[in-house]
Amino acid sequence: MQFLLYILIYPILWLISILPFPLLYAFSDFIYLILYYVIGYRKKTVRENLAMALPHLSDKERLIIEKKSFHHLCDMFLEMAKTMTISRAEMNKRYVFTNMETYLELEKKGKSIALMCAHYASYEWAVSMNHHINFIGYGIYKKIANKYFDKLVRDIRSKFKAVLITTKETKPTIEYNAKNNILGIYGFASDQTPRRSDNLYWYTFMGIETPIHFGAEMLAKRYDMNVIFLKGRKVKRGYYEATFEVLSTDVKLVPNYKISEEFMKKVEQQIYESPEFYLWTHKRWKHKRI
Predict the structure, then answer these.
(1) Which residues contact 134 (CB under 8 A, 6 or more apart)?
(2) 113 has which bridge partners?
(3) pLDDT of residue 23
């Protein structure tokens, strides 16, 4: 069944990937109309999230953001498909790192790096940074249940010299590399909701008390890694910029949870600047402190 689903969907993804960008975005406009007005995909979740996170805005203002966020979601999904066939030159033109020298200076310090980013703008295209760096780039992701699509995602990322590791593989991989003096950069998208457990750290994000991920910080401390934030920005349709901001070069001197808090502050600022480019379809504030 998994293979049947794969052979049915793969040709569609490939056809999307070879579309010229003007046609790609025309198709995205069509998908948006279906997704938003016909299917209403997670519209209730998005509306509730926006109401909680942006209560200072009027209903009309939030509705505008809601529609723009769905439009961006469709663009991003098709851009992910486009990654299958996009050239390196085209990617470098459309996803620009504004201060790569800041990152490269960190490499010279001879320590592995934990990169923290949000599900914002084109976080999927951030994988293109692997063409500009010297360290091995590891992307941490949640394994896809369909093994054929899981392999497809890995193959696409390897095109950009990225090594995908699952959340379960993350700690063993970092530990192995640390013991064998293998320097790497590990990408953590740490802005979404952690699983419910007794070991949660609560923080006020967007004015709402919520548990946050702190695994990236703790792994950085355990294995003495530098920590950097990648701030994404959508310049215009199909074009993005990313800027590196150093969070810490001496993590062991930073009190616990402060790096995670600083990361969330930066994500919050990012959202307030242009909320329509955040991934609002996720239930970010589903846990309540008991």
Answers:
(1) 104, 107
(2) 185, 226
(3) 98
Question: Taking Cα atoms as reference points, which of 266, 271, 186 lies closest to residue 234?
Answer: 271
The two tokens of residue 84 are 């299958």
Report the distance separating Cα 213 and Cα 264, nearest Å.
10
Contact status, residue 190 vs residue 116, Cβ threshold 8 Å: yes
| Sole residue written with tokens 């846990």 | 287
Q: Specify the residue for token string 């995908």.
A: 164
How far apart are alpha carbons 177 and 233 in whole angstroms? Answer: 32
Structure tokens at 81: 């498909």
DSSP character string of the chain:
-HHHHHHHHHHHHHHHHTS-HHHHHHHHHHHHIIIIIII-TTHHHHHHHHHHH-TTS-HHHHHHHHHHHHHHHHHHHHHHHHTTT--HHHHHHHEEETTHHHHHHHHTTTS-EEEEE-SBSSGGGGGGGGGT-SSEEEEEEPPPSSHHHHHHHHHHHHHTTEEEEEHHHHHHHHHHHHHTT--EEEEEE--SPPPP-SS-EEEEETTEEEEE--HHHHHHHHTT-EEEEEEEEEEETTEEEEEEEEEES-GGGSPTTHHHHHHHHHHHHHHHH-GGGB-TTS-TT-----
Look at the pTM and tell me if it is higher than 0.90: yes
**Rounded Cα gap, residues 139 and 34, in angstroms:** 32
Here the tokens at position 158 are: 């390897």
- pLDDT tens-digit series, residues 32-71: 999 999 999 999 999 999 999 999 999 999 999 999 999 9
Count how many residues are written for the chain: 290
Query: Which two three-digit tokens encode residue 55?
Result: 């209560």
